[in-house]
Amino acid sequence: MQAWICDNPIGPEALTWKEVPTPSPKAGEVLVAIKAAGLNFPDLLIVQNKYQMKPPLPFVPGAEYSGVVEAVGEGVTHLKPGDAVAAFAGLGGFATHATVQAALLMPLPKGFSFPDAAAFLCTYGTTYHGLMDRAALQPGETVLVLGAAGGVGTAAIQIAKAAGARVIAAASTDEKCALCRELGADATINYSTGNVRDEIKSLTGGKGPDVVYDPVGGDLAEPVFRSIAWRGRYLVIGFAQGTIPSLPLNLPLLKGASIMGVFWGEFARREPKNNVQALTQLATWYAQGKIKPVIEHQLQMSELQRAFDLMAARQVRGKVVLTN
């Protein structure tokens, strides 16, 4: 097999594409022939040694992938060679093959494409957990999505609309705002040109959004939180801008508002039954055409470093997927 190896976590430029022995699955594991892998922001952080999980060296990055079962280890009875699956395993995806715990695999329904599946679990799992579980989003409520043209942002637009909410999508260019409207956003804000607080006030009649979905962080967080509705829920998804904001704690007091962390990977580990229910609902919405990953760039697996360059330059709308 071939794999991208990280033995010096100083950035994507230090990764090497190497031939390595193909592993055999141990008890409880499955060997997957990878067809597609999705690129997520934590994949960049982990090869820069900036992520909360710091795997022992060397390792193969790539948290999310889809493919076909080639072999199963002892004790695995619910999967067999030839089954189409998707995985969010944390590591191993930027390769031609990977062994993974069978419990981490999602069997793919008929008609679920490998590229879509490789851009689905992390992005849509995170977003469903945030909006529906943590924020308990209700039909008719207003959701403000920051970084709305990115992977989790585009998922948030689709899931919020499927749940019957009104969506205001905020992005950094007019082109990204146009994409958000195509995906169903009711209104958009270009936060690189407009006054965010004034625009939120205008678009919500002064009430503010009921839910804020924030994968950006940085200097947007405080002005947006100051605009949140009474009993609003502020979802902390990530920090794509690079800076972790510090919010004055008098703000949630004055608005009766909540700040909620969204860590889907830990939720899936601690609450597997609830996670299965969420993924089942998402698969149903996918089959109904209500949600579908936005994949702007589909590259060969050997082009991983180009994919990282696109992500670092914030030139990606939706997701980058790499295929074998």
In a few lines, what is going on in this structure?
This is NADPH:quinone oxidoreductase. With 324 residues, the protein is an alpha/beta fold.
Summarize the helices and strands and which ones pair or pack.
Blueprint: E1 2-5, E2 16-19, E3 29-39, H1 41-47, E4 64-72, E5 84-88, E6 97-101, E7 105-107, H2 114-118, H3 121-134, E8 142-145, H4 151-162, E9 166-171, H5 174-182, E10 187-190, H6 196-203, E11 211-214, H7 221-225, E12 233-236, H8 250-255, E13 258-261, H9 264-270, H10 272-287, E14 295-300, H11 304-312, E15 319-323
Parallel strand pairs: 8-9, 8-11, 9-10, 11-12, 12-13, 14-15
Antiparallel strand pairs: 1-2, 3-4, 3-6, 3-15, 4-5, 5-7
Fold and architecture overview:
This protein is an alpha/beta fold and 324 residues long. It folds into 2 domains: 150 residues, Alpha-Beta Complex (Quinone Oxidoreductase, Chain A, domain 1); 141 residues, NAD(P)-binding Rossmann-like Domain (Rossmann fold). 30% of the residues lie in helices and 24% in strands. It contains 11 helices and 15 strands. Strands 3, 4, 5, 6, 7, 14 and 15 form a 7-stranded mixed sheet that branches. Strands 10-9-8-11-12-13 form a 6-stranded parallel sheet, sandwiched between helices. Strands 1-2 form a two-stranded antiparallel ribbon. Helix 3 crosses helix 10 and helix 9 crosses helix 10. 46% of the residues are buried. The model has no long low-confidence stretch (mean pLDDT 94).
